[in-house]
Amino acid sequence: MTLALGVLVSGNGSNLQAILDAIAAGVVDAEVRVVISNRADAYAVARAQLAGVEAVVIPHRDYPTREAFDQELIRTLQRTGVEWVVLAGFMRVLSPEFIQAFPGRILNIHPALLPAFPGTHAIRQALVHGVKITGCTVHFVNEGVDSGRIIAQRAIPVLPEDDEESLAERMHHAEHQLFVEVLRDVAAGRIVSHVEG
């Protein structure tokens, strides 16, 4: 059965594009039912529209609380029949209520080899700390920040001449491959929902 995905975005949407391309090429047996952005100016919205996918902008500043914002996200995802939620550069921390609405079926990609460098600016942190190897992680989302069970990781060498921009470019390439591989395995039933208890 084709996997029904909802993708949450805040920015450029290169991971979203990789997912859309993989679905179009028949690599991942899935359908993106809806793309939701908390920012109207996110290029990811245009990427969704170009692919013929419903794109919804829900500005978080329009809601008095994080919980009220998340309730609107949940309503939109449920309306479109989403089974799994994918965070592709979504720059908001989700409330417990959101996580409970899709138990064990929320995936995130993070630009570090977790548990190293959780939170924002992971690429900058890797450079500041002088690590020789960093990478990206796909993990289940729980109520902590980047602390859910790790599904897959890919290592990337940090080169002596790297700055944030050059390392981010290689990171994005690795993220696109890893995210697609994980979603292919979810769609094929090789990765199943995971609820931490």
| Order of adjacent strands in the largest pleated sheet | 3-2-1-4-5-6-7
Poorly predicted runs: none
- In DSSP terms (H or I, runs of 4 or more residues), the helix count works out at 6
Number of domains: 1
Based on the coordinates given, report the CATH architecture: 3-Layer(aba) Sandwich
The biggest beta sheet reads: 7 strands, mixed
Roughly what fraction of the amino acids lie in strands? 15-25%
Globally, the shape reads: globular
Percentage of residues in helical conformation: 25-40%
Oligomer: single chain
The chain-level mean pLDDT equals 96
Structural class: alpha/beta
Quick rundown:
The chain is α/β, with parallel strands linked by helices and 197 residues long. It has helices spanning 14-24, 43-50, 66-79, 96-101, 122-129, 164-187, and strands at residues 3-9, 30-37, 54-57, 84-87, 106-110, 133-140, 150-157. The longest helix is centred in the last third of the chain and has 24 residues, at 164-187.
